[in-house]
């Protein structure tokens, strides 16, 4: 039996949260690539194909909302990749801004792991 891995780009500047996400995603047969800032997200997104992006909104250099807008501006099949936004201080932003930027979903930190797994399955399912 061959295991099918999903490629997930994890955009998170906190190494603690990045490691937590990696551990959770490994149980869901995901191959993880990490980026610690918004510019690295764009560089890795251009260089590789991914099935899903999990994007912290408050990234250095280029924030997650702007990185999402730039991905969506590509107007290619690749630019339609599902993006799940995460943030610890979303209270300062209306949730509508996440969706206006082009994110498909949003999860508040501290992360609800069951919800995260549900969304990963929703967006990486081959059914």
UniProtKB/TrEMBL annotation:
- Record's keyword annotation contains Repeat: no
Q: Which domain of life is it from?
A: Bacteria
Q: Which Gene3D superfamilies match?
A: 3.40.50.2300
Asked whether the UniProt record includes Transport among its keywords, one would answer no
CDD domains this protein is in?
A: REC_hyHK_CKI1_RcsC-like
PROSITE patterns membership: RESPONSE_REGULATORY
Write down the Pfam families for this protein, in alphabetical order.
Response_reg
- Entry's InterPro entries? CheY-like_superfamily (IPR011006), Sig_transdc_resp-reg_receiver (IPR001789)
The chain positions of domain Response regulatory read 7-124
Protein name in UniProt:
Response regulatory domain-containing protein
Native source organism of the sequence: Roseivirga thermotolerans
């Amino acid at each position: 039996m061959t295991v099918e891995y999903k490629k997930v780009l994890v955009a998170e500047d906190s190494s603690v949260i990045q490691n937590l996400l990696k551990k959770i995603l490994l149980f869901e047969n995901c191959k993880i690539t990490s980026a610690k800032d918004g510019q690295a997200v764009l560089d890795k997104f251009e260089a590789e194909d991914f099935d899903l992006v999990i994007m912290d909104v408050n990234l250095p250099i280029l924030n997650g909302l702007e990185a999402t807008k730039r991905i969506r501006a590509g107007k290619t099949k690749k630019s339609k990749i599902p993006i799940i936004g995460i943030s610890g201080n979303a209270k300062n932003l209306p949730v509508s801004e996440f969706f206006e930027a082009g994110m498909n979903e949003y999860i508040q930190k501290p992360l609800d792991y069951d919800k995260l797994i549900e969304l990963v399955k929703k967006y990486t399912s081959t059914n």
